[in-house]
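Morning!

As promised:
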Amino acid sequence: MRNSPISSVLMIVIVILGMFILVIMNNGMVAIDRDSSITLTASRKLLDTIIDEGEIPRSALIDFNADLASCAGTFTFEIQVAIPVLDSGGNTIYVYNTLDHTKLLTSKFPQGSIVTIEVTQATMNVYQRIMRAMPGMVSVESSCRLGGRVR
Amino acid sequence: MKYSTLAIPLILLNLILGTLFIFQWSANQAKLREQILLDVQTNYANDAALEYTLESSTRISQVLSEANGVSYNTFDADPTKAVEMYERVLLANWGIPYSDAAIQDFEAENLGMCALLVSDGLYLYNLQTMDAYYYKGDEQLHYFTPGTVVTNSLYEDKGQAQIFTYTPKLPITWEYEDTPGIINIGGGRQVKDTYNVTNNSLVISDALSDRDKLLNSLRIRELINHAIDQKVQIAQNKSQRLVHLANIAYDSNEFNSMTFISYTLKRYSDNSFLQSVGISGNKLAPSERYFIYKYPNSEKVYYNYQRYIDIVNQIANSNYGSDAIILYKDLVYKQLKSYRESLNASFDLEVTRLYYE
């Protein structure tokens, strides 16, 4: 058995599984956990600032970008806003808009606006690719979406 | 030879167990992340609901203009506005455009109940059994409280239906030494305005202040748990954990001012429900006032709290022999911020720190 080709192949599979795949998956999962925590905390910080100030201060945006850059994966973000306006009948309607990244610092959000921050993961690590390829497994992503109303 | 034959299946078993463990751990972590995210989203929606209710109160300006504090009993609360804003913000959090169809789906699938607690009772927005009547005038279904006698021939009885609707304001009642009473929980921890229903005279005073916790944990919990149970029975997902969750939330909060409570379910990919209980409270208080001043022969401008104005004057007297020049006083923080932006570069606005011995 020691010299049979079947046992050799089996050993190679075991070694690859044990030494590479499981380790990679474990590391990938830890990275996803950390990324999720960072993106959620960073989004909350930025959203709280917007809710209180009604605008995006430069320092808050720099912090937010730095937080996202510290993640293992690559992330993009989008800020959407629904601004309440009065129509001709005196009813409140909401005008939805996605902010251009060049206008983040100059945008003002009036009281009652609903601001939503969406952080999306742009890349996938090996662990995520394996999980996605396996049927029945939960799709694992670090993306998050948070919205709040400006005070 | 024999040992190596045994070793291979053992290693294989070890690897299989390790892989299964990682998959299970991964699934648990993913679910936990979703739960945390749902809790945060619910929290933002709760806060928005309560703030919108306060801002849209028609009497809030009168309350805020009162010089000597704020009375909780003088502004009104509209539960429809609270629920509308809660749903609007939560749907925005989930990336669903706000529409009537989206609201119907949300209420059928996700909303457990909402409750708005005010000083003398609470409104519930929950699943209720109502009598449905088809009205030939506008060709729509209308809902009435069970037992309502409808004599108009334009209404056609369609039996009973389960719909989300508001209750009238439910007073918070309890019994003290066999005396039924209605409680007003406004104005802080002290329970005030409690009166005997039979003769309208004040019968209970300080003895009640120790009992407000009991009051909160009995009547409110009973009503809200009943509302949750109704939804859960419909969803056929009855679980003791729901009530347990709600109880934890009630035990850690005291309802002594306007409070908004929500209970939300969200279906997870393994077909179970994530649950989130959100509680938002408010406490109205007069804004902290500031004043801006500078010392004689100095161009530097300072600001401080209005309550320190006497101390600042004392310091100015001892240092300069005269009062500090007060430029502006009685500003709230936003006015102070805009004033700071309007200052020239030569003016530097700084807060003075005061120390006490």
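The interface with chain B takes residues 1-2, 7, 10-11, 14, 17-18, 22, 25-26, 29, 32-33, 36, 40, 44, 47, 80, 82, 94, 96, 111-112, 114, 116, 118, 131, 137-140, 144-149, 151 of chain A (CB under 8 Å).

Hope this helps with the figure draft.
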